[in-house]
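Q: Here's a chain of 343 amino acids. Please give me its 3D structure as tokens.
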Amino acid sequence: MRLVNLVTAFGNRHRHIVIALDGNYACAQRLAPHLPVRYESIDAPKQNTLGNVRKFRRRLRELAPDVLVTHNWGAIEWAMANVPRLARHIHIEDGFGPEERNSQMRRRLLTRRVVLARSSVVLPSRNLWRIASTVWGLAHRNVHYVPNGISLGQFFGLERPFTDHPVIGTVAGLRNEKNLSRLLRAFRQVTEQVAAGLVIVGDGSERAMLEALAAQLGLCDQVHFAGQVDDSSSLYRSFDVFALSSDTEQMPLSVIEAMASSLPIAATDVGDVATMVADENRPYIVARDETALAAAMTALARDGALRVRLGAANRAKAESEFDEAAMIAAYAALFDGTAKAAA
């Protein structure tokens, strides 16, 4: 989605060739047909690093791009194929999968350290910037902190009326690392003290399991699974509290969207979440524990005045730090080759 927003903003400034290694080009429908984008496919079997690197290097020679942009560990073989360098390289790392939620895998750490040594490496969170600079050992001049940004105008910073039945909402892929089982169990504790509802927006491989767990916990009447929604901006307006229960994140866009929608946040302390929210909201960013998360959600669900105060502070923080215009300008400089790293 970030790439879609950048391509749209750049217009004819750049031409783009997009290769989705998993073959999923669903986001193409979000791009206007007049934009200069073409899509390529390439067979890249897993467990065949040497063969893939050779194949990708041949394709790089054929495509002859001015800039190679790779995203996350899944595209690291393209970065390897660019050594020795055929094109200026930008690598964007958004975070880690569940296999690296607690610590870096040594093989991947060493690969990043060697392969990305001469690349421009872009990180959307301070936590990732620290990891790239210290754990991976990359030179500071090559490491760029570019926080994610959103179009704030899509999200309405409205003061919500007090309600005796607050709605807690989350927007997430229903995947293991999002740990929505934790959210459901925490919400069960909330319902023991507050008459509240829970809305889960998103879809994924764990949906059936989560629906079964909600039934097991006796929450069928209080929990609504909204499924995948193309434009979730209007849904935030129906929430009174935003919750995030993940085991691993870096700079989740859903938190920025919730902040832009004047919502208080109850979340696990992962990635940059504690520093993303307004100072007043930080006490409600808690350990990765269902009881701690339940306590944070309960406190916010009980106190309408607190929700209004934190929501206003979060909206102001989003306006000052997470506007899409700043992100687009930073990536334009990176793509043009004029960016300078700054901590």
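Q: Can you summarize the key feature?
A: The chain has a mean pLDDT of 93.
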